[in-house]
Design a protein that fits this description.
The protein is of the alpha/beta class and 274 residues long. The chain is 28% helix and 21% strand.
Amino acid sequence: MLFRSYTIPGLIEGVPHYTDHRDSPYSIAHYLNRLYHTFVLYADDPRFFVGSTALETHRICYTIEMPNIDHKNAKNALRKTLKAILKAMDEESRDSLSLRAVENFMTLPEYKRAAIVLAFLSMKEELRTKALIDGALTEGKVVAVPRIGFSRTEGDYLEFIPLTLDYESWPLDRFGIPEPPEAAQGLSLEEMGSSRVVVAVPGLAFDLSGGRMGRGKGYYDRFLAKARAAKANYGGFLAVCGLCFESQIVGRVPMGPWDQRIEFLATETALRKL
């Protein structure tokens, strides 16, 4: 068994546990090794690490034991690390890995059965979803993307606006994402709850137990809770699949009682049922 060790950086203090691919050029450990003096433990025996799987024999684990760290700080530290990793990825790799992840997503049987695909338009450093959106539109599926709405009863909430073929000509918002026209109407919960729906969920970090961490606003968690209730009420089906790079998979995402878990995970490496 091969081990190498370095010094723990303050950047990831409070993050309970990470695992990632040893040979991934955009892994958490690779990024930290380049920019910081980090503590990284390499091993060829997957049994040595919590979170290893039979499919992934080379793992990296770095663990910081801080029993008194609070849940919010753990998530914030993890967000900071993952944002830096995504920013460090070159565009050629981002494009090629995105295409492979989308291809895996589109092999999901629930995607093939779906009438509605709830996708997302990518921010600059996110996985590219254009191939998914264009492919689903070509197949005659309804493709809808998120927009932040507001109501007096809920405050800010996530609604999904069906795309039109000219969506790339929409004006860009402050994140550089095409923004649906203000007059565009979102899909109702009844429409989604009574139909066959697959959700491609973005996020910063995922784990292999269905854990997901977004950007901290809770929009998807609140939406998925409502969508799952609508599915139960109206008799449709709903499949929730994370869509991310393999380097965004960590050993364990800190989860609270309000956080919604995903059922599938598509990356450039595999489509996993969780």
